[in-house]
Design the sequence.
DNA sequence: CGTATTTTTGAACCCTGTCAACTATCGTGG
DNA sequence: CCACGATAGTTGACAGGGTTCAAAAATACG
């Protein structure tokens, strides 16, 4: 019995482009594994040993400076592809923010398989191009947006991504998959500034925070308005 | 006579993976064109009509906000690939910073050609992955570095990239391909702040500025030291 | 040589970071 | 079930780096 057949991210992950036969081949070089919260799957600067798909949970891409400051480069959720195929070293670390399940492949085996399966490479290319576009959008956020705009944009993004997961439209009530510290690292702010913006949005009646990680968007339009200058 | 045979970026561009025969096919759907300084090749939000290689000159990727602020997402030099294959709209504009020559393909023709040429797609994939890594590095710069660090890092990057162009080692004397305004847009600063950091580096004897666009690195080590916090 | 554009310099202000203390929440064990 | 400590988040005061606004200087261009 092929593990892929009942895979939770079957449709979203790069594997969807493969025929049953090819999928079976890929399955044979793959391995389901769990990652505990805080544990790293790849280390910045180390040899890039594996690649894979996120099945469940949240991971972050994180890079740290010479002087110790570190920055989160992205958040990876179920269906996302992680790792750096066709490269020797990993430019950043991949660390689990929650307990997670991933489907991993040794990089060399995956590279070889991909080279022989153009549809897979094509899928990976499209995905990478999209990721590049998304990363460039974040660049603009970091370069030109102030604190309130960054936080508002982050909440909207998370609202969209969490709604995609459970299939409903735009979910106005969801749990953040990350801590304030992670948010700060991602948004290029400090934890205190993030906290102040959240408080401000709450005081303005735009959101409610019924729990530590819970967010309820009370006024989506107003939140969107916070996204751009005045 | 195949125009590719005497192409100045033959070795660096994605085309290098192709056989003579395939190269000839690609050449037939390609078109050499010039872009005047300030002119756009692609517009943010518009249909992505073309892709191509930069042959000569400098272009920028640029995105603008709802509220008018705009940000430069990257600088493209000779050999770089521009455009968004396999997507309908362009997430950003591509604008010439200097007069430039590019080798363009209609996106649909290129897409079709690429799908039938796995080695080309593979080359494009590797290039896109590398570009993604580079973009993520800039993200860290924007998220965690202060003004002097950003300017120092930019000068070092330009030193490296301009040396690559003329073949010499690390060129300590070069002309910036961009204006102060472009630098500011790229680094997420204002033009005034950029100017102040340049002045500061000059006053500290780390660089000299014999002309508006000219940079001479007098003390490379010291410049590198400015790259990270104290 | 004069005008337009780009760059530099100056001063005041404001946003965000920093440091510190306080509060809420979670998990653990008595 | 509650007490306790540990962790996460909030709030406040203050300082500093960068932006903003304004004007001068330098350079390019006709």
Sequence:
């Amino acid at each position: 019995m092929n593990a892929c057949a009942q895979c939770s991210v079957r449709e979203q992950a790069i594997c969807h482009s493969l025929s049953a036969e090819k999928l079976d081949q890929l399955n044979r070089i793959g391995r389901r594994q769990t990652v505990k919260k805080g544990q790293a799957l790849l280390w910045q600067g180390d040899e890039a040993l594996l690649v894979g798909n996120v099945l469940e949970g949240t991971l972050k891409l994180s890079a740290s400076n010479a002087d110790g400051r570190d920055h989160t480069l992205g958040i990876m959720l179920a269906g996302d592809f992680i790792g750096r195929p066709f490269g020797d070293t990993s430019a950043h670390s991949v660390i689990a923010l929650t307990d997670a399940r991933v489907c991993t492949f040794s990089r060399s085996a995956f590279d070889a398989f991909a080279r022989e399966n153009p549809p897979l490479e094509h899928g990976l290319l499209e995905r990478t191009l999209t990721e590049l576009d998304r990363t460039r959008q974040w660049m603009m956020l970091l370069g030109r947006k102030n604190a309130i705009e960054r936080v508002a944009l982050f909440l909207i993004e998370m609202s969209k991504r969490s709604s995609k997961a459970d299939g409903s439209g735009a979910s106005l009530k969801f749990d953040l998959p990350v801590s304030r510290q992670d948010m700060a690292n991602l948004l290029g702010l400090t934890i205190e500034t993030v906290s102040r913006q959240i408080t401000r949005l709450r005081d303005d009646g735009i959101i409610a925070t019924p729990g530590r990680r819970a967010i309820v968007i009370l006024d989506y339009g107003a939140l969107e308005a916070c996204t751009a200058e005045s």
